[in-house]
Design goal:
Keywords: Amino-acid transport, ATP-binding, Nucleotide-binding, Transport. One of its GO terms (molecular function) is ATP binding. This protein is α/β, with parallel strands linked by helices. It is about 40% helix and about 15% strand. A three-stranded parallel sheet has the order 3-4-5, with helices on both faces. It is globular.
């Protein structure tokens, strides 16, 4: 889902995750109508929201953050093997990590326990280009493992490499939706600036 600031992208994420009520339309999870389900029931059905702003507990250590999602020591060890920088710093507060390291900490456990659906709100926000590549590689790996992704971005470049379907949101409404192959520069301009070229 693409759109400029204020288009309603974060609100759509919260509605999809069940933390905001639906005011119109319906939400389906694995073909089942989940519109009336709250956030807890959707989470139990495998829907996970990775909110804008990393979604970690900054005062807890890296190890404590991982242990909240991964109870088994061997699952945490697999994360450390994949992300050695986290292993080196496992005893420090997560808030002391760089933005990219915080995003890796938030997403890395999902490789060990992939959710059915991951709703990622601006996963590349504020990250260096190299780190954005790492984040999107991780998201691609989750997609390839069977996780359904709802990715929300303000910038189109990153999302177009992974999306099957693209939707443009403008003032809380979908202004266009279709396959990635049909995304055109004119459509991007219209979606972001409200006019065609």
């Amino acid at each position: 889902m693409l759109g400029p600031n204020g288009a309603g992208k974060s609100t759509a994420c919260r509605v999809a995750a069940g933390s905001l009520p639906v005011t119109g339309g319906a939400v389906y999870v694995a073909g089942r109508d989940a519109t009336r389900d709250g956030a807890v029931r959707r989470a139990r059905a495998g829907v996970l929201l990775a909110p804008e702003g990393r979604g970690i507990f900054p005062a807890l250590t890296i190890e404590e953050n991982l242990a909240l999602y991964l109870k088994e020591a061997d699952a945490r060890a697999a994360v450390y093997a994949r992300f050695p920088r986290l292993a080196e710093r496992r005893g420090i507060p997560a808030g002391a990590l760089s933005g990219g390291e915080q995003q890796m900490l938030a997403l890395a456990p999902l490789l060990q326990r992939p959710p059915e659906v991951l709703i990622a709100d601006e996963p590349s926000l504020g990250l260096a280009p190299r780190v954005v590549e790492e984040v999107y590689a991780l998201l691609t790996e989750l997609r390839d493992a069977g996780t359904a992704l709802l990715l929300v971005e303000e910038k189109a470049a990153e999302i177009l490499g992974i999306a099957d379907t693209v939707a443009y949101l403008s003032q809380g409404r979908v202004s266009w939706c279709g396959p990635r192959a049909e995304v055109e520069a004119d459509r991007l301009t219209e979606a972001y600036l409200g006019m065609g070229t």
